[in-house]
Design goal:
This is MBA1-like protein. Pfam families: MBA1. One of its GO terms (cellular component) is mitochondrial inner membrane. It comes from Hyphopichia burtonii NRRL Y-1933. The protein has 234 residues and is of the alpha+beta class. The protein has a single domain, classed as Roll (Nuclear Transport Factor 2, Chain: A), CATH 3.10.450. Helices cover 35% and strands 26% of the residues. Strands 1, 2, 3, 4 and 5 form a five-stranded antiparallel β-sheet that branches. A hairpin with a 5-residue loop joins β3 (141-159) and β4.
Amino acid sequence: MIAVLGDFYVPPKMFKASMKIWHKLILRRIGNFFINTYGIIKYKRETDLNLKFNDWKEIGMEKFVQTNKVFSAACNKPVNQRSSFIKSQLDNIAGDLVIQNLIKRAASFPSNTKIDWELLSVETNPKIVTFICLPDANDLATYVQFTMNVTTKQKVTLTDANKKVTTKETTASENLVYTMDPFADELVFVGTVFESSFEKGIQPELNRNNPKIMSQFQRACADIYRSAPAIEGK
């Protein structure tokens, strides 16, 4: 399934920014709203299918949870079984690049340590913040890629070789990216993106005509456990 296709605008939290630039951020939010509205209109006109936002968000959350649970389960298996386990369990759940990144991370997880991942709660109602139709050669909508923002409370429990248990609870706001084939009713988790910087405009800045740059970007987005860059108010 198609990987993350661009550095789409994800509205940053205004309270982190200086009040001097709030007007710019508000205008960008309005612009982003119109871009999403265009995508929705194009979807309805060219696919003749119903919008099923609630279903998509529910399925998206299920696949996010499955991906995390499969990764933690894989890390608890012998090293030589981890790759095949992730591939078999995440087929049609996560994108190829997400699977590749999880395999790479699982391979380096200590064999004498056990890990358990648990979703404790969904703190905010999942919200679709970008909605882009992907056209075919005739410029007709064939796929959809959307970004869903959600804040969750998660718990990770580590048990080392000496049976020492370490538990960490975190509250995370994440922007989960999904590619969907609306005609086949298939949806795949293809990565994550971070909220945009205060300087970024609503149009993608990534050079999508450069295969090397696109490949690096897509692989980075597919690494769902990478650290977020710091955003400072100005």
